């Protein structure tokens, strides 16, 4: 009888521990990366902007973005909610990299709902810098104002 009570208490404690972890895990999801072809097709069919992350496995700044920027919960949530996200390895997808004339890495490209290039932002981008850039593109503010004007008008 005593062992059953101990077993029940241990089970309840484990369940409580798991319940406490759940909100933390929910906020630490991952960016839903797709291949170039999948992302371009999905972006056009869903009429959604596309975010392309050009990277290489040997690129230290690319690795830093993977471990910092693309691990930030706010960046993950915003990308997954508002963009089709594509990840392109420039060494494996050389034709795609050549199509965008990728030179410095990492390089982030923004593509319109129609599949047309909006623009790019090469180099390392921190999570703090990434969110305003994503909002600038998502809200179509790039059609109406400069990026600096957009930043100056943020609360």
Task: Give an overview in words.
The chain has helices at 2-27, 36-46, 60-67, 73-82, 94-99, 127-138, 147-152; strands at residues 33-34, 50-55, 84-89, 107-111, 117-122. The chain is globular. It has 7 helices and 5 strands, in the order αβαβααβαββαα. Residues 6-27 have low confidence and may be disordered. It has a 5-stranded mixed beta sheet with strand order 1-3-2-4-5. With 155 residues, the protein is α/β, with parallel strands linked by helices.
Topology:
Blueprint: H1 2-27, E1 33-34, H2 36-46, E2 50-55, H3 60-67, H4 73-82, E3 84-89, H5 94-99, E4 107-111, E5 117-122, H6 127-138, H7 147-152
Parallel strand pairs: 1-3, 2-3
Antiparallel strand pairs: 2-4, 4-5
Helix pairs in contact: 4-6
Index terms:
alpha/beta, 51% helix, globular
Précis, in short:
The protein is of the alpha/beta class. The chain is built from seven helices and five strands, in the order αβαβααβαββαα.
């Amino acid at each position: 009888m005593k062992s059953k009570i101990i077993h029940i208490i241990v089970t309840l404690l484990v369940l409580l521990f798991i319940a406490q972890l759940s909100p933390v895990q929910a906020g630490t999801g991952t960016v839903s990366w797709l291949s170039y072809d999948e992302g371009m097709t999905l972006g056009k069919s869903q009429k959604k902007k596309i975010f392309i992350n050009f990277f290489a496995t040997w690129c230290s700044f690319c690795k830093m973005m993977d471990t910092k920027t693309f691990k930030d919960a706010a960046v993950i949530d915003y990308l997954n909610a508002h963009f089709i996200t594509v990840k392109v390895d420039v060494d494996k997808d050389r034709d795609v990299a050549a199509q965008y004339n990728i030179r410095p890495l990492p390089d982030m490209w923004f593509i319109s709902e129609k599949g047309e290039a909006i623009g790019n932002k090469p180099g390392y981008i921190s999570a703090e810098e990434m969110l305003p850039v994503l909002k600038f593109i998502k809200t179509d503010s790039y059609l109406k104002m400069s990026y600096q004007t957009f930043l100056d008008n943020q609360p």
